[in-house]
Amino acid sequence: MALARYLVLDMKSLDAWRMLGVTAAMLLLAISVLVIRYGHIRFPYDEHPKDRDSQP
Q: Are 14 and 25 in contact (CB under 8 A)?
């Protein structure tokens, strides 16, 4: 949210390279959220992990 606010409020004073840098950072954060969500769906957590100290 801070990057989006920075981009919107300071758009007039940003040069092209800084604007591209901010948008690339936003894109990188969005991709990382998608990767984490995909990893959670593909490899879910064990809700009740087995106790390693107990014997079968």
A: no
